[in-house]
Write a structure and sequence with these properties.
Rossmann fold, 17 helices, seven-stranded mixed beta sheet, 460 residues, Gyrase A, domain 2, six-stranded mixed beta sheet, Four Helix Bundle (Hemerythrin (Met), subunit A), alpha/beta, binds guanosine-5'-triphosphate, 3 domains, binds magnesium ion
């Protein structure tokens, strides 16, 4: 994304398609002048953007070559109190696919350039309005599928992670400055007590990096969600259970065996965790080719999932296939669901408990579904999750950088203990400081920025 920062950019900030209103956002040094050309205010108190005060709304029409394009409200935001820190104008037009497209095109005709994905947020970053973790939090907020994910993203936007990273980076830079000062004065050895102090600072820095790294699992769960395969014999009630967990009828339920032939995927928020449930074809040995394919897909769904819900129909005796799958998937994180407890029971909870945690439910009446949700949450967080971990919850990118920092710190710590050359200590320490700086964008390459911002949608 090496596009010029001098350009004034424009994009549709709302989703494509029909809606009540659509917003075209224009940002850059010429934003006011560009909208001046196309906006015709109506009424005495409504002004041209260039005459208007910041954070004010104006009513009028977008007109191009004597053609009225749309009736709009124009909001003027003057630099620097804006998202990008540049002059920004937001045109709220009617939300038709065509009107919003024409309004956007008119801003382009008047001199704006179509923004690239994430370019508004990139400008916010480059103009110092946000650091890199906060810019990423904007994307996390947009993509958040559960309230818990959203909460974590909001903490990151507020700078919770940034503050910790900045403090860590500053501590380590002080140590680095100290070591480098001694390189410049080779006659002076580091005094023994200074040596110990530096060593203990490196150690506590390393511990702090490890603490941050421990939140990577929560970060991954909140951002990417957790895949959960629902498996079991035909008619065990897999699709019924999926519908219960989703809270609406997504999959077809019927008493005919082999109803579900394809895999169905749907995300639900379970105790704040985004879980991607995968409903599969019932597992049975089959000569029917389509169904054999379904069974192959079920196995694949299990392979690709972190969690398995194995459903047993408790109103019938346990089948050889179930025994086989109890064995086959024993190393998976798994819950055994005893379904149809509203009917007379042929399988007991006790006999299944030798294999794994058992949750009795009725996918028909909803009995036991709350307990199942609790059990899912517990198995995913592996017990109690620290609320602090949810607030920091680093991303995969942060994790990679922190791992690099950790290695650099460990090497410089070892070199310092062994009283090796100061250049060597400084070199590894510099690697660590740079890796940490990369997290907040203090040290960043164009490639890295392109990669991050291209994941955004256009208009953000
Ligand atoms: N009584 C009772 N019936 C249930 C329960 N859960 C599911 N059923 C019934 O069992 C039948 C099969 O349910 P489905 O949800 O379609 O089962 P499935 O496992 O998805 O079946 P396939 O897609 O064919 O593999 C339907 O008639 C459901 O109404 C339950 O808890 N109690
Ligand atoms: Mg089904």
């Amino acid at each position: 994304m090496s596009a010029s920062m001098d350009d004034t950019i424009a994009a549709l900030a709302t989703p494509l398609g029909e809606g009540g209103i659509a917003v075209v956002r224009v940002s850059g040094s010429k934003a006011l002048a560009i909208v001046d050309q196309i906006f015709h205010p109506k009424g005495s108190r409504n002004l041209q953007p260039s005459q208007a005060e910041t954070h004010t709304v104006h009513y009028g029409h977008i007109i191009w070559e004597n053609q009225v394009i749309d009736e709009v409200l124009v909001t003027v935001f003057r630099s620097p109190r804006t998202f990008t820190r540049e002059d920004t104008v937001e045109i709220s037009c009617h939300g038709g696919a065509l009107t919003s497209k024409l309004t956007l095109e008119t801003t382009l005709n008047a001199g704006a350039r179509l923004a690239q994905p994430g370019e508004f947020t990139q400008r916010a970053f480059l103009n110092g309005r946000l650091d890199l973790t906060q810019a990423e939090a904007v994307a996390d907020i947009i993509h958040a599928r559960t309230e818990l994910s959203l909460k974590a993203a909001n903490e990151q936007l507020a700078g919770k992670l940034s503050q910790k990273i900045e403090a860590l980076r500053e501590d380590l830079m002080l140590v680095l400055a100290h070591v480098e000062a001694h390189i410049d004065f080779p006659d002076e050895d580091i005094a023994p007590d200074t040596h110990d102090q530096l060593l203990s600072k490196l150690r506590s820095g390393n511990q702090f990096v490890e603490e941050l790294l421990r939140t990577a699992r929560e970060g991954k769960i909140l951002r990417n969600g957790v895949r959960c395969a629902i498996i079991g014999r035909p008619n065990a009630g897999k699709s019924s259970l999926l519908n219960q967990l989703l809270g609406h009828d997504r999959a077809i339920v019927s008493e005919t065996e082999g109803t579900t032939r394809d895999t169905i995927e749907e995300t639900a928020s379970i105790r704040g965790i985004p879980i991607i449930f995968v409903d599969t074809a019932g597992i049975r040995e089959s000569k029917d080719e389509i169904e054999a394919e379904g069974i192959r897909r079920s196995r694949k769904a299990v392979e690709q999932s972190e969690i398995v819900l194995h459903i047993l129909d408790a109103s019938t005796v346990i089948h050889d296939m179930d025994q086989a799958f109890l064995e086959e998937f024993r190393s998976k994180k798994r819950l055994l669901i005893l379904n149809k407890v509203d009917l007379p029971q042929k399988i007991s909870k006790e006999e299944m408990e030798v294999h794994d945690t058992v949750i009795p439910v009725s996918a028909r009446t909803g009995q036991g579904i709350d307990a199942l949700k609790d059990a899912l949450s517990a198995i995913i967080w592996e017990g109690q999750v620290q609320s602090e971990n949810l607030e920091i919850a680093i991303s995969a990118r942060h994790q990679t950088a922190l791992n690099r920092a950790k290695e650099g710190l460990a090497r410089s710590e070892a070199a310092l203990s062994a009283e090796e050359s100061l250049e060597l200590i400084a070199m590894d320490l510099r690697i660590a400081v740079e890796a940490i700086g990369e997290i907040v964008g203090k040290t960043s390459t164009e490639d890295l920025l392109d990669k991050i911002f291209s994941q955004f949608c256009i208009g953000k």
